[in-house]
Amino acid sequence: MITVKDLHKSYGELRLFKGIDLVVRKGEVVVCIGPSGSGKSTLLRCINGLEFFQQGEIDIGGIELHSINRVRPSRADDETLRKVRRKVGMVFQHFNLFPHMTVLENIAEAPVRVLGLSGKEAEERARALLRRINLEEKVRRYPSELSGGEQQRAAIARALAMRPEAMLFDEPTSSLDPEMVGEVLAVMKGLAQEGMTMLIATHEMDFAREAADRVVVFDRGEIVEIDTPERIFTRPRAERTKLFLSRVLRR
After folding, report:
1. C-alpha atoms less than 13 angstroms from C-alpha of 91 in its C-beta half-sphere
2. Pick from 7, 116, 113, 107: which is nearest to 55 by CA?
3. 8 A C-beta contact, residue 125 and residue 110
4. H or E stretch at 206
5. pLDDT surpasses 60 at 71
6. CA 26, CA 24: separation in Å to the nearest integer?
7. Residue 238 in 3-state DSSP?
8. What is the reported pLDDT for 44?
9. pLDDT digit string, tens, across residues 34-69
10. Phi/psi of residue 100, each to 5°?
11. Got the DSSP string for 81-148?
């Protein structure tokens, strides 16, 4: 579903990725862990076309992104990015809901504007998604009237309204109070059980253990190792993985 090949990414003289490779299979849940600043979020943003890269290829279900994105995108590049974003939904740390729109309007907007659905069709789709995440009673509320957990669940519903083939989650619980984390992770676990392809950057180690098919460990722009959750958390091979886990699991 998602293939990253020989990806290089720099910020001026600072080189982050020096040729990383990753494959996410259809229906697979891959969770990226590692220290802050190690490249997890940047990889997701490259896959969704939000960050340009200098070298390498990214293939999303047959749609190819190349290093041509390092310069100002051409019209052809813009069309490629639109195709990618129809195929892959993304959920961010800070929700990014439109503050002047109700929950229902936030979810229905893109299917009307991008997919060409009628207002009625988009609203029906939005209401079905809100029922699925237990937010149906909040349809007329504005984001400011929701808790952080409710806002993030609404953001997930907004991404799902486009009927993506895969979902990217960039630290989806990092901005939430601890008591709200569980309700967002429950929605994500439900998606995993339904077979949604997901690539997730997170600091939630328990979630990585429970929901991932494979765990990818990042450190300083490199993929240190990739394996099953059981292997990563009980018998990691790389010293940098052992050091990272010894720090985060002590907390």
Report:
1. 33
2. 7
3. no
4. helix 205-211
5. no
6. 7
7. coil
8. 96
9. 999 999 999 999 999 888 898 999 999 999 887 654
10. -90, 0
11. HHHHHHHEEEE-TT----TTS-HHHHHHHHHHHTT---HHHHHHHHHHHHHHTT-GGGTT--GGGS-H
The sign of the CA dihedral 37, 229, 94, 78 is positive
User: d(Cα 30, Cα 101) in Å, to the nearest integer?
Assistant: 33
Question: Other CB atoms closer than 10 Å to residue 249's CB: what's the count?
Answer: 9
Joined together, the tokens standing for residue 141 give 């509320």
In Å, what is the CA distance from 179 to each residue of 33, 147, 148, 171, 173?
A: 22, 11, 10, 16, 11
Q: Give the relative orientation of helices 148-160 and 103-113 as an angle to the nearest 10 degrees.
A: 20
Do the beta carbons of residue 117 and residue 110 sit within 8 Å? no
User: How far is it, in rounded angstroms, from Cα 77 to Cα 68?
Assistant: 8
Tokens at 18, concatenated? 């020096």
Q: Which residues are paired to 65 by β-bridges?
A: 58
Which residue type is seen at 141?
Answer: R
Q: Produce one character per residue of 7-42: b if its CB has 16 or more CB atoms within 10 Å, e if not.
A: bbbeeeeeebbeebebebeeebbbbbbbbeebbbbb
